[in-house]
Amino acid sequence: MSRVIESFIDDVCSYIKYKGVHKEVKDELSLHIDELKDSYISKGLSEEEAEKKAIADMGNAAEIGEKLNKQHKPQTEWSLIILTAIISFFGILVMYVSSNFENHPVSFSNYILHVCVGVAALIGIYFTDYIKLKKHPIMLYFAAVFLLVFCMFFGTAYAGVKRWLVVGGFAISVNSVAGILFVSSFCGFLEKYQGEGFMGIVKLMLWGIGSMMLFVLQPSMSMVFVLFVAYAVLVIRAISLNHFDGNKKIQMKFVLSLGGISALMSLGVLISSPYRFQRLLAFWNNGANDPAGSGWIFAMADKVLKSSNLVGKGTPLTEGSIDWVMPEITTDFALINVINNFGWLVGIALVAIIAFFIVKMFITSNKIKNSFGFYLSLVSCVMLTVQFVINVLINFGLCPYIDVSLPFISYGGTNYLTNMIYVGLILSAWRRNNILSRTQRNISIREKLITFADNKLIIDFGVSNTKSHGHDK
């Protein structure tokens, strides 16, 4: 590249405040100038004259730079941040009340610390370039494997299962950390196998099955289910976008068939385990078949909900306060805790806000232009949504009881942290949505960022329906 061209391009980039897009702009401008230059040389102009003519055709550097700067400012999805803050506020309220429980009160100061760490993590992820995760899927995958295996041997047991690592007085939920590492690596493998057809899908699913098997061995069937749904949504969505190339119908039939077989196998595992089978029966009978045993928690949840008022604290139970009669009232049954302490109207409002939050997440994710960013934000949406939906259904007695907490509400530092990271990943992808890498979702992105047609320089980093900016020659 000559000094004249380099000086012109540098002049354009000097107006673009976000340096992350400079390389892309420089590459595109250089390519277009070279094309114009070669065109003029072929018409008989000298190299020096062709170069000057090509630069002149590009137009004013300041005007081009200012337009690109406006179009490529980092953007923030404030509505998603506000909704996260509102849901977290509900969590702060209910944990403040729960800190006054007589039986196993929570530490409100610790919960505030969890919130502060989670917010710091969200901010850190928001400003971090998520594309870096794309380059290290194997490292992320085996980091999760190491954590799970290490915990199986040296972790702290809870309810007979080693899922915690205690470090300096802090208990770390290995499942939550491993989960976010696995889904991030899965997105990396998904990008790696793009265009590989049927074999790409097979290799991708083998990585997914391997990660789920570790949770089967632990055992943690709730994590197996959450990962299964997340992987399934990613693969099905990728096939629908022809991510792998090849016959989409055959690919979809294969994935759905394998998913059906996996579901039947999971049902077999449930039936073969007396403990899990009893919990399943307890759900179907709403605790009536064994109110003193496996169905006790459903029976008590029903009583607590029936004793709750429309507004304000619920009617006291004859069995005692809810922290005495219900286990996991600050974690898995945190929604019942909200309803019983603040009333049905507050509980319904919280569920409505959660529903709006879920919809907003998916709308934002669907607008992500970068392929890896789209899949990473999508899987973050799924991981949060599955937790929200399952927990709400469990609290209302509409789903068998499994160990799934309510994001941003339930007590627990690691879960709060990882869920904030999921939101941070969505926000990070959205922040860089106008700063496109060369790997795009081919259904919506134009092939070139800068084109020249009809005596106009067309600058467009957006999707196909984005308004173009032009500079008359």
Please give the radius of gyration in angstroms.
27 Å
Widest β-sheet, arrangement of strands: 1-2-3
Unreliable parts = 437-459, 461-473
Question: Number of helix segments?
Answer: 19
Q: State the distance separating the first and last CA atoms.
A: 23 Å
Helix content bin? 55-70%
* String of helices and strands: HHHHHHHHEEEHHHHHHHHHHHEEE
- Estimate the strand proportion: 5-15%
Envelope shape: elongated
Describe the structure.
- By secondary structure, this protein is mainly alpha-helical.
- 65% of the residues lie in helices and 5% in strands.
- It has a three-stranded antiparallel sheet with strand order 1-2-3.
- The chain is elongated.
Task: Fill in the keyword field for this structure.
473 residues, three-stranded antiparallel β-sheet
Describe the secondary structure blueprint for this structure.
Layout: H1 3-13, H2 22-42, H3 47-58, H4 61-71, H5 78-98, H6 108-127, H7 131-134, H8 137-154, E1 156-158, E2 161-167, E3 170-173, H9 174-192, H10 197-217, H11 221-240, H12 248-272, H13 274-284, H14 296-307, H15 322-325, H16 334-342, H17 344-366, H18 371-395, H19 413-431, E4 450-453, E5 456-459, E6 469-472
Antiparallel strand pairs: 1-2, 2-3, 4-5, 5-6
Helix pairs in contact: 1-2, 1-4, 2-3, 5-6, 5-16, 5-17, 6-19, 8-9, 9-10, 9-11, 9-18, 9-19, 10-11, 11-12, 11-18, 16-17, 17-18, 18-19
